[in-house]
Write a structure and sequence with these properties.
Layout: E1 2-4, H1 9-18, E2 23-25, H2 31-36, E3 44-47, E4 57-60, E5 63-67, H3 72-79, H4 84-91, H5 96-101, H6 104-110, H7 118-123, E6 127-132, E7 135-140, H8 141-144, E8 145-147, E9 150-151, E10 158-164, E11 171-176, E12 187-194, E13 199-205, H9 215-221, H10 234-247, H11 258-283
Parallel strand pairs: 1-3, 2-3
Antiparallel strand pairs: 4-5, 5-10, 6-7, 6-10, 8-9, 11-12, 12-13
Helix pairs in contact: 3-4, 9-10, 10-11
The protein binds flavin-adenine dinucleotide.
Flavin-adenine dinucleotide binds next to strand 2, helix 2, helix 5, helix 6 and strand 10.
């Protein structure tokens, strides 16, 4: 197996163009599992760990541009204030060792329906910046996921960064699993309130062939009592949860049945809405 180790981003793009079959490796927390279990035998590995360009984050106009190589640990420590939903999800990923190595770029690269970074990125309306020697594209994250473990990335492209607006209001993330960490989610849900535009963004994980939004729940959220900031009636919370569950396309598998996933999502949808709404109401007083 060839081992390619570029030291600049441009060299990495050149290497990917010359070796489109080379498998990029960032933190290696997915790639090394696949190699160890002999699920994958690539002709070459493209090591991204020396590229300081993808470990940086900062403002890009009105949004934040976060390099693909920023780890979960740094999302929690450095971006918890501006991207609270993503930081909440990052806190649930694996163990401290996995959070120290694993990157959001790697989560996107794997494109697993169960990737924990995906629901908050969907809820926040993020875009994924991908690049090749041919140029750069910014893809809405909902269009980035093409199927189970498949993405819109072309063979010669690498993920450079993701772009996401700083939180405009309360954000939440909740996940169901057999224990708190070191498990693949049975299902997960992220919510991002935008009190200025009176909208809510949503993201569902592990309950469909790709991470999904819940568009009907998002439309329903525009009818909430944004002006009065009244407590939400139980009926509104339950309806929001039902609409989240209805947007899922789960299957039965070893981690849970489709029916259980739908039920759990209705609970997570309602629960996260209540938490986020309370934060919105308290922010007014
Ligand atoms: C014990 C354990 C627990 C885990 N727990 C969780 C969990 O709770 N939640 C969760 O979501 N995941 C979990 N994971 C999976 C994994 O940690 C995450 O998916 C992580 O985000 C992968 O990031 P990485 O940098 O290690 O990616 P890598 O393993 O380096 O790469 C992952 C994939 O992305 C591609 N890739 C990486 N960077 C780029 C790039 N810049 N451009 C193009 N392609 C790229 C690689 O080629 C590969 O296909 C766990 C893994 C382990 C081993």
């Amino acid at each position: 197996m060839e081992y390619l180790r570029p030291s600049t981003w441009d060299e990495a793009l050149g290497a990917k163009a010359a070796h489109p079959d080379a498998v990029p490796i960032a933190g290696g927390t997915d790639v090394m599992v696949e190699l160890n279990f002999d699920r994958r035998r690539p002709s070459a590995l493209l090591d991204l760990s020396r590229l300081h360009e993808i470990t940086e984050w900062g403002p890009d106009g009105v949004v934040l541009r976060v390099g693909a190589g920023v780890t979960y640990r740094r999302i929690i420590d450095e971006l918890g204030g501006s991207l609270p939903g993503l930081a909440m999800a990052a806190r649930t990923v694996g163990s401290p060792q996995i959070r120290n190595r694993g990157t959001v770029g790697g989560n996107l690269g794997s494109a697993s329906p169960a990737g924990d970074a995906h629901p908050p990125l969907l809820a926040a309306g993020a875009r994924v910046e991908v690049a090749s020697v041919r140029g750069t594209r910014r893809i809405p994250v909902a269009e980035f996921f093409a199927g189970p473990k498949r993405s819109a990335l072309a063979p010669d492209e690498l993920i450079a960064a993701f772009l996401v607006p700083p939180a405009a209001g309360a954000q939440q993330f909740a996940k169901v699993g057999t224990r708190n960490a070191m498990v693949i989610a049975v299902c997960s849900f992220a919510l991002a309130l935008d009190p200025v535009n009176r909208t809510a963004g949503t993201g569902i994980g592990s309950a469909g062939p790709t991470p999904l939004r819940a568009p009907d729940a998002e439309s329903f959220a525009s009818e909430l009592p944004w002006e009065s900031r009244d407590p939400l009636p139980d009926s509104a919370v339950a309806r929001f949860g039902e609409l989240v569950a209805a947007a899922a396309r789960p299957i039965d598998d070893v981690r849970g049945s489709a029916a259980y996933r739908r039920h759990a999502l209705s609970v997570l949808g309602g629960r996260t809405l209540r938490w986020a709404w309370e934060e919105y109401r308290c922010a007014s007083t």
